[in-house]
Specification:
15 strands; D-amino Acid Aminotransferase, Chain A, domain 1; globular; 2 domains; nine-stranded mixed beta sheet; 28% strand; 265 residues; D-amino Acid Aminotransferase, Chain A, domain 2
């Protein structure tokens, strides 16, 4: 088997994957002060590119980082996607931080898409979500909580872990936002104030469908007519089980409905 070493993109330059990319005084390394976005590359082109650039601008502002140049972010996406995948598919992660001199630091990392199961199974994370660290749902490089939740899912041979807060309300998945089709027919997702990352796919879907913020307990998730999880890389996926309990029979139809509006972007 041949291992492909995908390149990285650092402050305007493509480098080999094993090249040094982060200084010891980089804020993402020394303080956890960094933000990022993960971009799906399809046929060599980034999806939701403008939304990803807006997210990085917004989150950099929330963290007190220097304002990124949207043209630089667009260039980073295009150059790394072309170098890593040509006209194929994959994922590019763009990260912003600042070095000890206060300069903006942009790092792009390419990775292969990996497996895409037709339906997802989830577990409940074994700890409570603490709530929002910052208002607005920035996607932070400080992701210990999500990483540990993902470990719990992996150990259980599941695809996702759902995080509930100390009061028992659903916040988010370890790598997704959650949308449920409630018994009253409403599409709903946890209120942003609970502390979820402001997902790009959820943003796009909410502009086309009436998705209302509503507190959801674990019992509400189990009782829902259908449940789907979504992010900008995977799109919308049916969630068919939680902790080994089958979820609503309309999960697949819900995921297809969400996927259809995302494909219209």
């Amino acid at each position: 088997m041949v291992t492909v070493r995908l390149p990285i993109w650092v402050d305007g330059t493509l480098r080999p994957a094993d090249a040094a990319a982060v200084r010891a005084d980089d804020s993402a390394f020394s303080e956890g002060r960094g933000c990022y976005t993960s971009v799906r590359i399809r046929a060599g082109a980034p999806t939701f590119a403008k939304r990803h650039a807006r997210r990085l601008e917004r989150d950099a502002r929330a963290l007190g980082l220097p304002a990124p140049d949207p043209a630089l972010l667009t260039r980073a996406l295009a150059e790394l996607a072309r170098a890593a995948f040509g006209g194929g598919d994959g994922v590019v992660r763009l990260q912003l931080s600042r070095d000890g001199d206060g300069a903006l630091h942009v790092v792009g990392v390419a990775r292969n898409l990996g497996d895409q199961p037709p339906a997802w199974r989830a577990v409940t994370a074994p700890f409570a979500h603490p709530g929002a660290l910052l208002a607005g749902g920035p996607k932070l490089t400080h992701r210990l909580l999500q990483a540990l939740a993902a470990d719990a899912a992996h150990a259980a041979r599941a695809d996702e872990a759902l995080l509930f807060d100390a009061s028992g309300w659903l916040v988010e998945g370890a790598r997704t936002n959650v949308v449920a089709l409630a018994l009253d027919g409403a599409l709903c997702t946890p209120p942003a104030a609970r502390g979820a990352v402001a997902g790009i796919a959820l943003e796009a879907a909410s502009e086309r469908l009436a998705i209302e913020p509503r507190d959801l307990s674990r019992s509400d998730v189990l009782a829902a007519c259908g449940v789907a999880v979504l992010n900008a890389v995977r799109g919308a996926c049916a969630l068919v089980a939680l902790d080994g309990v089958a979820l609503g029979p309309q999960s697949d139809a819900l995921a297809k409905r969400l996927a259809a509006v995302l494909d219209d972007e």
